[in-house]
């Protein structure tokens, strides 16, 4: 479970989390399940999708999660919005927790390594890993990204009443 105190969420490579911009949409506040869909391909396992489950309501519409300067576009069109990954891992965090992590990092130069290398090793599975890291009153979720580096789309699922019920990042393993 991940805890969101604010309604502005970030999905990015942890290497750039210091400068990451949140999505424009306002998300539910509270504690929510983080789910990883694992693809098994010829004895290899990879994270195919990461998902935040805000409610059990079925998704009736998907849209790109947008950042400042991006305009709505059909997800099956020529425009593609996503975030780049160079570390082979990504994270979900809210803006308040991200700001708190920056302060934590200013006080402890090694915190990034402790979280995204040492702590992730504690949750290693065959060819993928994850961590839910708790700090102060915050937490973050980090996980492997498919085959590693790339640009990955993040999508918002809406229920029949127009409420956000999912946030999903596609790591490009499933056609």
Could you characterize what this model shows?
With 175 residues, this protein is mainly beta. Helices cover 14% and strands 43% of the residues. It contains 2 helices and 12 strands; from the N terminus they run E-E-E-E-E-E-E-H-H-E-E-E-E-E. Strands 1, 3, 4, 5, 6, 11 and 12 form a 7-stranded antiparallel β-sheet that branches. It has a 5-stranded antiparallel β-sheet with strand order 2-7-10-9-8, with helices on one face. Strand 3 and strand 4 form a beta hairpin. The longest helix is centred in the middle third of the chain and has 13 residues. It is globular. The two termini are 28 Å apart.
- Apparent shape: globular
Task: Give the DSSP E fraction (strand runs of 2 or more residues).
Answer: 35-45%
Number of strands: 12
Helix and strand run: EEEEEEEHHEEEEE
**Largest sheet geometry:** 7 strands, antiparallel
Low-pLDDT stretches:
none
- Rg from Cα: 16 Å
What would the average pLDDT be, to the nearest integer? Answer: 95
Number of helices: 2
N/C terminus separation: 28 Å
Helix % is 10-25%
Give the helix/strand layout:
Blueprint lengths: L1 E3 L4 E4 L17 E12 L2 E10 L7 E4 L17 E4 L3 E6 H13 L3 H11 L2 E2 L2 E8 L2 E7 L5 E9 L5 E7 L5
Antiparallel strand pairs: 1-3, 2-7, 3-4, 4-12, 5-11, 6-11, 7-10, 8-9, 9-10, 11-12
Quick summary:
The chain is mainly β and 175 residues long.
List keywords for this structure.
175 residues; mainly beta; 7-stranded antiparallel β-sheet; 5-stranded antiparallel β-sheet; 2 helices; 12 strands
